[in-house]
Every structure is written in structure tokens, then in C-alpha cells.
Amino acid sequence: MKLMMFSKHLQTMSVAEAGRVIRDLGFEGVDLTVRPGGHVLPENVRTDLPVAVRTLADLGLQVPLITTAITAADEPYAVDIFETAAEAGVPEIKLGYWRYEGFGTFRRAMDEVARRLDGIEKLAQRTGVRANIHTHSGDYMSASPFIIWHWIKDRDPAAIGAYVDAGHIVVEGGVSTWKMAIDLLRGRITLLAVKDMEWQQVDDPTLGKKRWITKMVPLNRGVVPWPEVFACLREVGFDGWISVHSEYQGSHSWRDLTVEELIEQTRGDLVYLRWAMRGE
Question: Which end is more exposed in the chain, N or C (fewer Cβ atoms within 10 Å of the end residue's Cβ)?
């Protein structure tokens, strides 16, 4: 397994500046944002992505994955992004998210996402760049790995993959469902995202009691049983890229860190992560 860092959290820096930080932390690759507000803007992808990939290669870094907002093949810039990724040697794309719009909409949304994936699968097959569905807890259609299995089980594994996020699958299925998910998705897990969370209580008068919410926390204090997760991943034969998501800014984090603090926290996370990956 190889480690890359999600570049979202270093977007105040240029690609070269972020790359030097990522390299110096000890990562082998960059999960580069190619979406609105990202390091590469979708409308500039044909010119800027090849330059970014070359810049990072000069620093000794690979770009195994780009993170996009693509949810349909006929969206603006979707074809540009897939074709340019292929030309630049980027093998994997993370898709965007389909929102769960509320109770009563689920079955219709399932069918709509499947229809959109038909087009994305064809685009991925044509370009040779795999599209990956990321597990994301909350009001997202990809919150459950079992839903993702329903979408991908009969699709081309070289075109559509499952991007498992351990933090998100554990908070959605914290006792054993996360383990069942990895078991079910065996052979179709293409990428692993690393982040951790904890549950906290906040006042909510509408419930007449406190509500539980999740916050991003360092890897050594959250709910994810990392050694067990890696043991399961090894058992199903996963040996792919791992993207470290240092989600330590904004209201979703246990603390709103500065970029400098975030870099130091990532350094500490890597110590714990490498220990957990060894399975000692």
C-alpha cells in the first residue's frame, strides 16, 4: 500500500508549494483536487492538469488520483477531465456526490444515479481512467457501501470502483457493518481514504434531548479500529493507494487548525497510521 495526501487542505498554496510539503511529510503521491475551488479548475483542466502532474513529478511525487465533482458524463468539463487525466497518466478519478434529498426520494434517486453511472462507465471505458464512488456518511446517496455494491456489482471493474473511506463507513455502521462492507466489496475496492471521527453531543430542542454529531479528529482518538480495518483489507487483497484526508479545518473538525498546525497534525497521524498498517 502506498500513501498520498489529499491536496484540498493545502489549497492556499500553489501546486509546487503543496507538493513540497507533501513530499517532506513522506508521502509518495498527491490526491489532487480538480474541481471548483481546487488546485486545478475544471475549465482549465486541459492546460493546467498536465502542468501540475509534471510539477509534482519533478518533486518525486505521483498523481494516482484526482478528486472531481463529476456526477454525470454529460456535465460540463466531464469529458475534458477524463480525457486529460488519461493523457497525463492519472489512472483514477474520484466522482462527486449525489445528495439524498429527503424521505420519500430514495428509490427514485437510486435509479437516477444508476442511469448516470451508465454514461460514466462508458466514458471511463473509452478513456481508460477508472471512476470511483466514495463512501460519505450523512445525506449522500453513497453513504452506505451496500448501496455502492448495488450500483457496481454488474459493472466493468476496470471502469467503476469503490473508494472506501474508513471514517465514514465506521460512523455509518460502527459495530460490525463496516467489516461486512469490506467483505462484500472485496475485489472492487480500488482506493482507501483515511480520516477518523468521534461522536459528540450538542443541544437540540427539537428532539427534547441532546443530538449526537460527528467531528473529525486525529487518527489515534477516533472511532475507527484501524488495525482491524487494515487486517480486513489485507485479507481481501487490497494493496492500492491510500489517501490521507487531514480534515482539520472548519466546523466539522474538533479544532479549526491553521495550515501550519494541520501539517504538524498530519505528521503525527502518519506515525500512528504506519503503526496501524503494520498490524503489530
Answer: C
The rounded distance, in Å, linking the Cα atoms of 180 and 91 is 28
Q: Which residue has the cell 464512488?
A: 133
pLDDT surpasses 90 at 280: no
d(CA 247, CA 254): 10
- pLDDT tens track for 16-54: 999 999 999 999 999 999 999 999 999 999 999 999 999
Instruction: Check if the beta carbon of residue 71 is closer than 8 Å to that of residue 98.
Output: yes
Name the amino acid, one letter, at 93: I
CA distance 276 to 194: 12
Q: What is the CATH number of domain 2-278?
A: 3.20.20.150
- Residue 214 belongs to what H/E stretch? strand 209-217
Which positions ≥6 away from 94 have C-beta within 8 Å? 31, 65, 66, 67, 68, 132, 134, 163, 191
Q: Cα dist. 252→131, 213, 215, 248, 257 in Å? A: 27, 9, 5, 8, 11
Contacts for 275 with CB less than 8 Å, ≥ 6 apart: none
Tell me, rounded to whole angstroms, the distance of Cα 15 from its chain centroid. Answer: 19
- The secondary structure element, H or E, covering residue 54 is helix 45-58
Facing residues of 95 across strands?
A: none
As a whole number of angstroms, the distance between CA 166 and CA 231 comes to 13
Radius of gyration over every alpha carbon of the chain, rounded to an integer in angstroms: 18
Spatial neighbors of 182 by CB under 8 A, at least 6 apart, are 145, 164, 169, 189, 229, 232, 233, 236
* Residue 81 near residue 45 (C-beta atoms within 8 A): yes
Q: Within 10 Å of residue 61's Cβ, how many Cβ atoms?
A: 22
- All three cell numbers of 253, joined, read 473538525
- The confidence score (pLDDT) of residue 174 equals 79
Phi then psi for residue 120, to 5 deg, are -65, -40
